[in-house]
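Slide 14.
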Amino acid sequence: GIVVNEKAKTSIENIFAVGDCTEYIDFITNEPSLIGLGSIAVRQGMAAGINSAGGNYTLPKGVLQTRTSEFFNVEIASSIRAGEKLVVSNSQSFTACLIHLAWSAAS
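Slide 15: predicted structure.
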């Protein structure tokens, strides 16, 4: 990925990058990580547009990669710890994540 700073700038002067191709600091690992979240891409786009036009827009110092979904009235949320692996008894490995499940009775 393309590493960007809090202004959406790359290491090349006057070049900005946004969206799925970018890496930004992950709050958990404190390392650049591919983000791939639309909400972050929108903010990066704002930063790149404002800053390339001479303005001053700063992104937060990092991101917490959190995703949420709802299936059959069950809300699912996860925060991924990039790079950590969970190994189960049959030796398959999965990216570790914290999951919070919540559901409500149908009304």
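Speaker note: The two ends are 45 Å apart (CA to CA).
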